[in-house]
């Protein structure tokens, strides 16, 4: 049976109350859902009901069946992947968005949807210090909202491919190659698969803190060209997922200038929002982004206080996007579009329809303001510094890469070897620590106690504590590491200290178990 307006009002009040209760009790919930695969099939019928059910029963089943199976990304002890910094402003905006349910593909579909997006993308560009060349109010560039950084990279690659092939007649599709690194997000390989193109991943290592150097890029371009391939799209990263590495855009800048027909896309999906803080812009190479990037992406839905999804993509030449993606059958033509007086965002992404995402970004930026947004970013960095200081005092834990903003990668080492301690604290940690322990093993200590083995043992114990905290693991050139990412809006220093206490407790247990 369909709800009427008054029934919706009543159910809406109840839903808001339940959402508030959810956040009040969030810290008491296990971080990760304590269910087994397939749990839901035992609770929900295998076929839809023949007759409509009361909404009270449906809402009750949400609490009974769904909530126990949720992993809580807003939990203050969620440190896996990159936490979501969900806010109430964004939740309310999504409620309004769902109410109007506008697909927003043409300006006329809802002028407010398009025009607000144009405006807030320029707000965000100013927040991050992006050059006027990337703004919608400028002559050539502009920005729009996408679903994720993966879609943003794919869109940029499509524009780059068409631009390159238009400029180089006779180039075959199979000649094209995307260049990235072994630390680039999976979005690079996905873009290659979707487009049917080769991908060259440059090996980066601990000697450069897992960042791409200009010399490596220059060599890769020469090698690919020597094979008859045509590099057309480079993905550089500000804040890699595994370790938070920042590719050396100062050097990449010079290489790109030698190859002006190659499109440089800068993926700053996680770290880009930190550009809001002026004191971080040199560290994050903003000047280089403004100088040579053809496109730039960051996600508000990670560290940026906006609930999922809200990915921002800016391009230096918006016509490169629309030329590649404009498909306009007669039924989509409008007099405003034909006159060129409006923006039709359907030509800026893959799908036709698009959500009214700009509303939640507008709500959040207005509610927090520039200073409030910066305060949130600085809080995450300060909390990460607390964790780093604790790791540095630990007898069993060592940094596995330089700390990056609100991300720390660490591993376990034997407390009995000063040699292992010293080498792991250096930036080139990858093989040095394991080598040191292997050397020590020749003196009577089992090789099974190398840092990789110890860290995996620690990880297995922490996996059993996922109700208390949630971390994720990674590999840095074959070295097994753990990573803690801070950023949930409800995380406080006490949660970071508690997380470290749990990690240290389990590391001590590993040390005792393996007699180190």
From TrEMBL:
GO CC, one annotated term: cytoplasm
Superkingdom as given in the UniProt entry: Eukaryota
A GO BP entry: amino acid metabolic process
One GO MF term attached to the UniProt entry: pyridoxal phosphate binding
Pfam families named in the record: Pyridoxal_deC
Cofactor or coenzyme needed: pyridoxal 5'-phosphate
Keyword annotations of the record: Decarboxylase, Lyase, Pyridoxal phosphate, Transferase
In-chain residues carrying the UniProt-annotated modification N6-(pyridoxal phosphate)lysine: 302
Similarity comment text for this entry: Belongs to the group II decarboxylase family.
Protein name: Pyridoxal phosphate-dependent transferase
The organism of origin for this protein: Schizophyllum amplum
């Amino acid at each position: 049976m369909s709800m009427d307006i008054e029934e919706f009002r009543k159910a809406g009040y109840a839903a808001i109350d339940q959402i508030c209760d959810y956040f009040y009790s969030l810290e008491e919930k296990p971080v990760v859902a304590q269910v087994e695969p397939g749990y839901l099939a035992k609770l929900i019928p295998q076929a839809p009901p023949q007759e409509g059910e009361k909404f009270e029963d449906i809402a009750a089943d949400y609490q009974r069946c769904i909530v126990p199976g949720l992993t809580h990304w807003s939990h203050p002890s969620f440190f896996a992947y990159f936490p979501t910094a969900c806010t109430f402003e964004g939740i309310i905006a999504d409620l309004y968005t769902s109410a109007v349910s506008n697909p927003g593909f043409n300006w006329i579909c809802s002028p407010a949807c398009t025009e607000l997006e144009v405006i807030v993308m320029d707000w965000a560009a100013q927040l991050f210090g992006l050059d006027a060349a990337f703004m919608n109010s400028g002559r050539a560039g502009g920005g729009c909202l996408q679903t994720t950084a993966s879609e943003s990279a794919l869109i940029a690659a499509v524009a780059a491919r068409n631009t390159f092939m238009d400029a180089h007649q006779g180039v075959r599709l199979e000649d094209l190659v995307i260049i990235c690194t072994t630390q680039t997000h999976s979005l690079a390989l996905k873009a290659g698969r979707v487009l049917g193109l080769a991908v060259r991943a440059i090996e980066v290592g601990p000697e450069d803190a897992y960042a791409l150097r200009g010399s490596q890029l220059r060599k890769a371009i020469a090698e690919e060209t020597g094979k008859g391939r045509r590099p057309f799209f480079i993905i550089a990263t500000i804040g890699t997922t595994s370790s938070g590495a920042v590719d050396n855009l100062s050097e990449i800048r010079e290489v790109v200038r030698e190859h002006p027909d190659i499109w440089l896309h800068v993926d700053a999906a996680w770290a880009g929002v930190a550009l809001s803080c002026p004191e971080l812009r040199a560290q994050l190479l903003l000047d280089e982004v403004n100088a040579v990037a053809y496109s730039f992406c960051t996600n508000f839905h990670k560290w940026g206080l906006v609930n999922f999804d809200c990915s921002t993509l800016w391009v230096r030449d918006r016509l490169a996007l629309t030329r590649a993606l404009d498909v306009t059958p007669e039924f989509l033509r409008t007099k405003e579009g034909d006159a060129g007086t409006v923006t039709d965002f359907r030509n800026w992404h893959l799908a036709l329809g698009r959500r009214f995402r700009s509303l939640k970004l507008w709500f959040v930026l207005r509610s927090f303001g520039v200073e409030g947004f910066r305060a949130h970013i600085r809080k995450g960095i300060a909390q990460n510094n607390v964790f780093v200081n604790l790791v540095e005092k630990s007898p069993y834990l060592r940094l596995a890469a330089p700390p990056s903003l609100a991300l720390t990668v660490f591993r376990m080492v034997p407390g009995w070897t000063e040699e292992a301690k010293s080498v792991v604290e250096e930036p080139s940690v990858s093989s040095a620590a394991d080598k040191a322990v292997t050397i020590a093993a020749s003196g009577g200590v089992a090789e099974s106690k190398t840092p990789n083995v110890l860290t995996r043992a620690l990880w297995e114990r922490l996996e059993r504590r996922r109700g208390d905290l949630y971390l994720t693991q990674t590999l840095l050139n074959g070295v097994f590491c753990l990573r803690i990412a801070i950023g949930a809006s409800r995380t406080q220093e006490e949660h970071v200290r508690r997380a470290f206490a749990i990690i240290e407790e389990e590391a001590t247990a590993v040390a005792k178990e393996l007699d180190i």
